[in-house]
């Protein structure tokens, strides 16, 4: 769980409400903590999403699942909770 103050996803409105459909997990109906920590700054959330979407679509030689596995391996190597 994030130690950073967040706006609960069921309270997102305005600019956050517009972003919500892009970030909510349709299977579980929740927003991942790595995105939710940006809820106080929708501009940074949009920038995070742009970077993520670019990284996940950035190459035709790797499938998305392979890119996610690389991200997981890097996070584990860095001691970062993924």
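-> sequence recovered:
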């Amino acid at each position: 769980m994030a130690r950073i103050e967040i706006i609960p996803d069921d309270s997102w409105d305005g600019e956050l409400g517009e972003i919500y459909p892009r970030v909510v997990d349709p299977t579980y109906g929740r927003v991942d903590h790595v995105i939710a920590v940006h809820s106080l700054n929708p501009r940074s959330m949009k920038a995070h999403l742009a970077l993520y979407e670019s990284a996940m679509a950035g190459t035709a030689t790797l499938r998305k699942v392979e890119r996610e596995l690389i991200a997981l391996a890097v996070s584990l190597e860095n001691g970062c909770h993924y």
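The chain has one domain: 9-77.
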